[in-house]
Design goal:
This is DNA mismatch repair protein MutL. Belongs to the DNA mismatch repair MutL/HexB family. GO terms for molecular function: endonuclease activity. Keywords: DNA damage, DNA repair, Endonuclease, Hydrolase, Nuclease. By secondary structure, the chain is an alpha+beta fold. It folds into 2 domains: 191 residues, Heat Shock Protein 90, CATH 3.30.565; 114 residues, Ribosomal Protein S5, domain 2. It contains 10 helices and 15 strands. The chain has an 8-stranded mixed β-sheet with strand order 5-4-3-6-2-1-7-8, with helices on one face. A 5-stranded mixed β-sheet has the order 9-10-13-11-12, sandwiched between helices. Strands 14-15 form a two-stranded antiparallel ribbon. The termini are far apart. Bound molecules: adenosine-5'-diphosphate and magnesium ion (MG). Magnesium ion binds next to α2. The site of adenosine-5'-diphosphate has 22 residues, from α2 and α4.
Length: 327
């Protein structure tokens, strides 16, 4: 099973950022509304993610590290209506096969917390008592310490941390209701409180995308025929050091989709001829029955039941908003 897990890890675990993504999704699936992320040396030496979610019961702890030990799916038929982020049950097993992983957790009704450690070895993990508030901490140390070939593909500490930060950013842009704290090498990078009203949401955007973005961005909030598009669109004149500042969410999930990309590009092009392809953060909300988000779990594609009307709606909503500032 160790080898099988290491092979599976090749698909899930590419770098610290992909570990973070899996662990953050687990924390959200567990209903957490506060997540603390601590990284050292780009997340390679240490990645520790603590949440205040529902926790893992004592007898479930060693199972959580086993392959296909997902608690999130009962029957294959459930795949159709899967609403949680994870449903493959191999992230923890894969990660623990290529790192030193320590899992500590406490459920609401437990008298104390429990901990299991897996060190890339095939061994029934020992469950030991630990101190921890309700929720879960997953600590991943020395990523790829036992797979040197993979370790070789890691880039500099800076680059690995940039990727990791981008994962946190993407998620923090999607979940205003969750507080996120990110630290790297003992420095605070993000301290984001949960945001409920418009003002605090805008503040979070400014913290994540910069004050300069928010100063020039146009707010948008348009609803038509059960489709709602809201967020902030930047102008092509907005200069940024970062190449890719385009965030699009469908029902709270980050999406990189051809149809969406096309509609947005077209709207910008038709109204504000030329200029750089701008920065934006946009949220599309629609009836979940009208969109299939599980086309591919990692490629962020979606399939709209009525793609044409979604495309037309996006195009005209953005077109209308941008036309207000037409040069
Ligand atoms: P999946 O998320 O696909 O179910 P994982 O390997 O990521 O598989 O996790 C295995 C199981 O461990 C989950 O189904 C869940 O029951 C439990 N688990 C993992 N992380 C957490 C967490 N942060 N809080 C509560 N339960 C968790
Ligand atoms: Mg998972």
């Amino acid at each position: 099973p160790l080898l099988a897990n290491q092979i599976a890890a090749g698909e899930v675990v590419e770098r610290p950022a992909s570990v973070a993504k899996e662990l953050l999704e687990n924390a959200l699936d567990a209903g957490a509304n506060r997540i603390d992320i601590e990284a050292e040396e780009g997340g390679v030496k240490l990645l520790r993610i603590r949440d205040n979610g529902r926790g893992i019961a004592h007898q479930q702890l060693p199972l959580a590290l086993e392959r296909h030990a997902t608690s999130k799916i009962v029957e294959l038929a459930d795949l159709e209506g899967v609403s949680t982020l994870g449903f493959r049950g191999e992230a923890l097993a894969s990660i623990s096969s290529v790192s030193r992983l320590c899992l500590t957790s406490r459920t609401a009704d437990a008298e104390q917390a429990w901990q299991v450690e897996a060190q890339g070895r095939q061994m029934e993990p020992l469950v030991q008592p630990a101190a921890h508030p309700q929720g879960t901490t997953v600590q991943v140390s020395d990523l790829f310490y036992n797979t040197p070939a993979r370790r070789k593909f890691l880039r500099t500490e800076r680059t690995e941390f940039d990727h990791l930060q981008e994962v946190v950013k993407r998620m923090a842009l999607a979940r205003f209701d969750v507080a996120f704290h990110l630290r790297h090498n003992n420095r605070s990078i993000y301290a984001l409180h949960s945001a409920t009203d418009e003002q605090s949401k805008a503040r979070r955007i400014a913290q994540l995308l910069g004050d300069e973005f928010m100063e020039q961005a146009l707010p948008i909030d348009i609803e038509r025929n059960g489709l709602r598009l809201w967020g902030w669109v930047g102008l092509p004149t907005f200069s940024r050091s970062q190449a890719d500042m385009q965030y699009f969410y469908v029902n709270g999930r980050t999406v990189r989709d051809k149809l969406v990309g096309h509609a947005v590009r077209q709207a910008y092009r038709d109204v504000l001829y030329g200029g750089r392809f701008p920065a934006f953060v946009l949220y599309l909300e629609l009836d979940p029955n009208k969109v299939d988000v599980n086309v591919h779990p990692t490629k962020h594609e979606v399939r709209f039941r009525d793609g044409r009307s979604v495309h037309d709606f996006l195009y005209s909503a953005l077109n209308r908003t941008l036309a207000e500032v037409r040069p």
